[in-house]
Amino acid sequence: MLDGLGVDLVEVGRIRRAHNRWGERFLRRVFTVEERAYCMRKAHPEQSLAARFAAKEAVLKAIGTGLSGGIRWTDVEVVNDESGRPGVRLGERITRRIGVKRVLLTISHTRELAIAQAVLLA
Questions:
Q1: DSSP symbol at 57
Q2: 109 an active-site residue?
Q3: In angstroms, rounded to a whole number, what is the distance separating the alpha carbons of residues 103 and 63?
Q4: How far apart are alpha carbons 18 and 27 in whole angstroms?
Q5: Contact between residue 115 and residue 109 where contact means Cβ atoms under 8 Å apart
Q6: For the chain, does the N or the C end have fewer beta carbons within 10 angstroms?
Q7: Sequence-distant (≥ 6) Cβ neighbours of residue 113 within 8 angstroms
Q8: One of 19, 56, 101, 109 is an active-site residue; which one?
Q9: Annotation marks residue 101 as catalytic
Q10: Exactly one of 19, 44, 56, 61 is catalytic; which is it?
């Protein structure tokens, strides 16, 4: 059963500028260790960072909490299965608020834009 839907579109340049301005401080605030490692292995890490940023925004919209009530960016972790399919690992703060839910996620990016859509299932 559908419980929530979220979508987000991010300009890759916006993430590049934030990274250039704030460096590791920005990356640590928004992305988990595993997410940072995954993105920084890429030829164009800013594209993967933007895609994960969009995914986090889409998930927060789908669950309806946003960054309120102590929810942090790192409470939503984008992971990939063995085949590369994206998925989501929700942190304890979120699961305490909404319970155990399944999230379906799709992400895509070009050199300039990243988009993500999240579906929350009850």
A1: H
A2: yes
A3: 9
A4: 9
A5: yes
A6: N
A7: 9, 10, 11, 12, 50
A8: 109
A9: no
A10: 61
Q: Which residues of 41-71 are buried (b: 16+ CB within 10 A; e: fewer)?
A: eeeebbbbbbbbbbbbbbbbbbbebeeeeeb
DSSP H helical ranges for 1-122: 12-22, 24-30, 33-40, 45-63, 92-98
Which domains does the chain possess? 2-121 (3.90.470.20)
Cα distances (Å, whole numbers) of residue 26 to 15, 77, 104, 119 = 9, 16, 26, 27
**What pairing do the DSSP bridges indicate for beta strands 113-121 and 2-11?**
antiparallel
pLDDT tens-digit profile of 28-68?
999 999 999 999 999 999 999 999 999 999 999 999 989 99
Q: Which neighbouring-strand residues pair with 105?
A: 118
Cα(17)–Cα(23) distance, integer angstroms: 9
pLDDT digits (tens, 9 = 90+) for 82-109: 999 999 999 999 999 999 899 999 999 9
- pTM flag (> 0.90): yes
